[in-house]
Amino acid sequence: MPVIKDEYQGRKPDEFRILLGLEGHPDSRNIKTYIEKSNGYKALEKVLKGGMSSEDVINTVKASGLRGRGGAGFPTGLKWSFVPKGPGEKYLITNFDEGEPGTYKDCYISEVTPHSLVEGKIIASYAIGAQKSYIYIRGEFYNEIKWCEKAIQEAYDAGYLGENIMGSGFTHHMDVYSGAGAYICGEETGLISSLEGKKGQPKLKPPFPAVKGYLGKPTVVNNVESLAVVPWIINNGPDAYKKFGTEKSPGTKLFNVSGPIARPGCYEMPLGYPLMRFLNEDCGGLLDGKKLKAVIPGGSSAPILTAKECENVTLDYESIAAAGSMLGSGAIIVIPEGVGMPSVLENLMDFYSHESCGQCTPCREGTGWLYKMSKHILKGNATKADFDRINTVANNMRGKTICVLSDAAADPARAIIAKYAHEFELYLKG
């Protein structure tokens, strides 16, 4: 178990704010507040007027160790470096689909500090040479759409978007595009298909979007949180960013905590922070004297961890992976004693069955079978053979489809029945 850094001892969550520095401030979404209270657009000025080349920006982000905050944790600067150099049509797309159950961090960024996203997008676009970018957002996010559109318009009015920004010769335009609320469009190639006006279904890779993406042109897809932290890194430098977190998981991250917890919500914490200390001290512990039974640490697609497994886990990619799960989107779902795991499984499989795009047979049929079998068990109509079949179906789904939605259903199912088989046995016939 990684030892928590000495400088974190005794400090409160509001002392770890990189992204949420404007939280609680009146008019935090206003460009004037962002400029006056958060060094707004200073990073963009440093890039465009301070002589930073696109390669300088990419190398700065690489040096910070920033990893994509959408779930996979791929190094952000490295992803940018895959885009072919030189002139040509290129695109940057922000993944604001945020369909993972339990996750609302990107929505919270747009509520508190949408200009950090806009500024981060402009800087990232400069780094890869994109003159056009989009924010792809779920259609249900009515307020978030309006906040993003307003921030973009304010940036245009202030001269931070448009032609020849700050006299630098760099031109960039930005739009918001709302989807139809499909979970599959959180996968980058499915998102690109939707943006192109097609059915939102993933594509085979290679070619990767960095080479052939939106409209067949080089494209980078980044999560909201990944881009929103870029201005801070440019302003303060990669070494300042790496003072937070661990060697392999530097920086802070937004965590969403839901369930019967005293203080649920969105928290910005340094990566490497102990999970149980976070839940018990920073989030106030479980309500009404409830005891912890399990935690889903990274959104609904992350395999469940028992209370015992949580004791030595820290909030970073490596520690949670070593425990058999994943950090994912950072959505921490708290499950107390008294909640039946067969019901949890049915609820999760219902979601994935509904959200499968149907393109790949193992996912289209497998998610439906997992839901039907879990429902069959809850009704008391299943046998031991039916229960064992869940594992068989899940194993035949994993790693056999174009995207990982199939895995996102199979992995939680396998973990739940492996760790809580005794609860399912109570429902079985014979």
Task: Name the features.
single chain; 430 residues; alpha/beta; 5-stranded mixed β-sheet; 4-stranded parallel β-sheet; 19 helices
- For the largest beta sheet, what order do the strands appear in spatially? 6-5-11-8-9
Tally of DSSP helical segments = 19
How many distinct beta strands? 11
- Gross morphology is globular
What ranges have pLDDT less than 50 throughout 5 or more consecutive residues? none
Mean pLDDT: 93
User: Approximately how much beta-strand content do the residues carry?
Assistant: 5-15%
| Termini gap | 43 Å
Query: Taking Cα atoms only, what radius of gyration do you get, to the nearest Å?
Result: 22 Å
What structural category characterises the helix and strand content?
Answer: alpha/beta
Q: Helices and strands, in N-to-C order?
A: HHHHEHHEHEHEHHHEEEHEEHEHEHHHHH
Helix content: 40-55%
Summarize the biggest pleated sheet: 5 strands, mixed
Please provide a written account of the structure.
- The protein has 430 residues and is of the alpha/beta class.
- The chain is built from 19 helices and 11 strands.
- The strands form 3 sheets. Strands 6-5-11-8-9 form a 5-stranded mixed sheet.
- Strand 5 and strand 6 form a beta hairpin.
- Helix 17 runs antiparallel to helix 18.
- The longest helix has 18 residues.
- The chain starts with 30 loop residues before the first helix and ends in a 5-residue tail after the last helix.
